[in-house]
Amino acid sequence: MNDTTYSYIGLQSLKEDTFGDTSILRMIIELFIEDIDVYVNTLSSELQNHNWKALFQQTHKIKPNITMFGIHTLVAPILELEKSCKNEENLEEVEPLVNIISTSLICAKKELQTELNSMPNE
Predict the structure, then answer these.
(1) Ramachandran region of residue 35, left (φ > 0), alpha (ψ -120 to 50) or beta?
(2) Are 116 and 23 in contact (CB under 8 A)?
């Protein structure tokens, strides 16, 4: 499927990095989909617990994937959430950031699932 049909993800760079190897691309996408589920659940539970350290750690961990999967609209919110949680400042902004990030990742997950479904099985 062509990248231009997606609103949240951009896979061109990842496709180039995997040299068009569908099996590797499929594996990377599947792993990230699992990470999205874990991350969104962690955001929700740790936000309720005001566990800023855990939020920082999980956000820091997922940050490279945001770039790898071309989810450019999340770069600024992820950086802001990471900074706020790390420094425990601007905490009133954390919940709105979590909502934006969670919603966008759920949409990105749907697009990744569409991409997986369009790939030939090998």
Answers:
(1) alpha
(2) no
Pair of tokens at residue 122:
């090998």
Half-sphere exposure of 43 (CA within 13 A, CB side): 25
**Alpha helices of 1-122 — where are they, by DSSP H?**
12-17, 22-48, 52-68, 75-87, 94-118
Which CATH code fits 7-118? 1.20.120
Are 86 and 56 in contact by the 8 Å Cβ rule? The answer is yes
pTM of the model: 0.90
For 24-41, how does the pLDDT look when each residue is reduced to its tens digit (9 = 90+)? 999 999 999 999 999 999
Give pLDDT tens digits for 84-111. 999 999 999 999 999 999 999 999 999 9
Question: How far, in Å, are 8, 26, 58, 89 from residue 54 at the CA level?
Answer: 26, 29, 6, 15
Q: Tokens standing for 27?
A: 């594996």
